Amino acid sequence: MGFKPVKVGICGLGTVGSGTFNVLQRNQEEISRRAGRVIRVEQIGARRPNPLADTNGTQIVADVFAVARNPEIDVVVELIGGCDVARELVLEAIENGKHVVTANKALIAVHGNEIFEAAQRKNVMVAFEASVAGGIPIVKAIREGLAANSINWVAGIINGTGNFILTEMRDKGRAFEDVLAEAQQLGYAEADPTFDVEGIDAAHKLTILASLAFGVPLQFSKAYTEGISKITADDVNYAEQLGYRIKHLGITRRTDAGIELRVHPTLIPEKRLIANVDGVMNAVLVDADAVGPTLYYGAGAGAEPTASAVIADLVDVVRTLTADRDNRVPHLAFHPSRLSDLPMLPMEEVETAYYLRLQAAENPGVLAEITRILADQQISIDAIMQHGTDDQLVPIIILTHVVKEVRMNAAIKAIEALETISGEVTRIRVEILDAN
Question: How far is Cα 391 from Cα 89, in angstroms, rounded to an integer?
């Protein structure tokens, strides 16, 4: 192939697309020294130009599929987002023998198995470092850096919007709705913030991390998701008094029975490094048998941090253009013929500790009733806090030891049925996150 330039087509010229174009132009020489070839943007597929990218002299077409079919182009960079058009575009690019780089977590989490199979058939690569935790090279770390290890679990703050909201609630005692409105004004949260605050975005990313960590097919539909909209300033304060912080975590853990795949608010000890990751920053904690715990921290979004990961993938693709598919790093870290069929564990089967907050009438014997219900389900108590108030209702906070979720569900149902209990019991799971 000699040293002729590698020609790239960028589809999508939004935040990440313009960032990718700008960093490629600015660091052109450095990047080509690393890749051994010049990487040149030959064509851009975008409905409209972006004033943040100086694309003078680069051809822009409105039809992204024209980029996927352009015989001149070696690598298609998919940065349009969403699932439907992106899926068609990527499959079209693969069909035309082009390598693909994408930052699209929903696309990989939902359609990745189909896309990787097509890529195997056509002997092309699909690289997706930028799809998880923006600029943090976590895909490469798990897939290559930790290849010697058997991974025990992965826990991540992988949605910056949710982390910003919880940080503000903790630092300033603000209410969830109030901070969400500010996050929308700042552009951290979409007008419809469901994907961020209900954990769907984090579950897309966690699905990818679980496959890389344990060598299983992508199974987004099996992920358990719970959002942060029910967390109150009181919960944040009580957690603090008990020595914990509340973070919206994605957790995937291998057990004998199967793989846990869950996103939910979580109490973690305040002394853990990951408990101190604040604002819009992301962090992923990986516990593996040989190396122990390793923590990856950085910007999970933004034009140039994400571009950093997109271009690292481009460099990888260029370095291995001439390698046969069997000599490349497998998409999901494990050889496609050696993926495991270990099942995803239903939430009822997960074992964890719990924080419970309930509103009880100030009657003698209420606590005795609650502890009896917990004892019936073989749930042992780690700590109890009771706050006297002038109201008729007293908040009671209980921390439990580890128990199977199905038992906790039964206990909560029985507690909520008591006449002395008002409203629903607030349940937040507790993870200590110490290495084995």
Answer: 60
Q: Are 97 and 70 in contact (CB under 8 A)?
A: no
> Does 89 score more than 90 pLDDT?
yes
Phi-psi category of 12—alpha, beta or left, where left has phi over 0 and alpha has psi -120 to 50? left
For 84, other C-beta atoms within 10 Å of its C-beta total 9
Integer Cα distance of 248 and 260 in angstroms: 16
* Helices and strands in the chain, H and E counts: 14, 17
Using only C-alpha atoms, the chain has a radius of gyration, in whole angstroms, of: 24
- How much is the pLDDT for 1? 43
pLDDT of residue 204: 97
Number of domains forming the structure of the chain:
3
Q: What is the pTM of this model?
A: 0.95
Distance CA 169, CA 404 (A): 30
Assess whether pLDDT exceeds 80 at residue 327: no
Q: What are the beta bridge partners of residue 100?
A: 76, 126
- Is 343 inside any structural domain? no
pLDDT band at 389 (very low <50, low <70, confident <90, very high): low
Q: Which residues are identified as catalytic? A: 205
Q: Which has the closest alpha carbon to 73: 97, 52, 103?
A: 97
The whole-angstrom separation of Cα 335 and Cα 105 is 21
Round to whole Å and give the CA distance between 23 and 47: 21
**CA distance to 48, 316, 414, 416, per residue, from 399 (Å):** 54, 47, 17, 17
- Tally of CA atoms within 13 A in the half-sphere of 375 that contains its CB: 6
Same domain, residue pair 316 and 169:
no
- Structural domain containing residue 39: 6-135+303-338
Beta bridge partners of 11: 45, 78
* Among 152-156, 263-267, 274-278, 317-321, the least confident range: 317-321
Binned at pLDDT 50, 70 and 90, residue 273 comes out as very high
CATH number at residue 211: 3.30.360.10
